[in-house]
Amino acid sequence: MVGAVEMVCKGTLEKYIGLVQNQPEEEMDQEDIWIFGYGSLVWKADFPFKEKRTGYIKGFLRRFYQNSIDHRGTLERPGRVVTLIHSENSESRVWGMGYRIAANEKAEVLQHLDHREKNGYERHRVQFYPYPWSAEQLNDPQPILLYVATHDNPSFAGLNDTLEEIAEQALGAAGQSGRNPEYIYKLAEAMRQLYPGEQDEHLFELEKLLLSRDPVMLERNKQEPGVANEGDANRSEQCKEG
């Protein structure tokens, strides 16, 4: 998609999401863009990029408040995937991965991502803070595009489900990208590997609930008793599967 990117800010997101102004096509064509991944894009980017950079955005919380009827579930048995919601704390951080897309490839990449996130997500621009400091990579804050599920889209699950309810829904769901629990395990392990010591209680508590109930993981631990006490190592290998 070439030219102006229209950003529609909804509800409380307006305080933290900037509107992308109309820009001449030639200006857009000459600039690289950054894309922020906070879900599966953290560990697996299915588009070309020039550079990737660890870091975070501010003022949001990562939550499993979006139903998935394609990648991690079906229409009959939706799964759960992440979106972002506004945080009352403007300094709240969501850790993820920034990808720099070449100017001559961004039209194709944005078209791909618009289709990939068609199940209720809209494109927005926020500020990205690279971390940790690097002598080889970008360190200055940058505007970055990301996809946020709108609260009025048909697959938005609402803000009130408990982690118990989300876990039960995820356990029985699978879609074209695989079992729903595997998505949660991979995201949790990616956070531990990339940002050791940082806490995402919603994500880690959901992972803990699933590991205690997931028949696949329980059976795997039964067959490989040594792995039962080495959950992090086990999930690390899953993460490498992409």
From TrEMBL:
Example GO biological process: glutathione catabolic process
E.C. no: 4.3.2.7
Top-level enzyme category: lyase
Basic and acidic residues bias: start-end ranges: 232-242
Transmembrane segments: none
CDD domains, alphabetized: GGCT_like
Protein name as catalogued: glutathione-specific gamma-glutamylcyclotransferase
Species classification: Eukaryota, Metazoa, Ecdysozoa, Arthropoda, Hexapoda
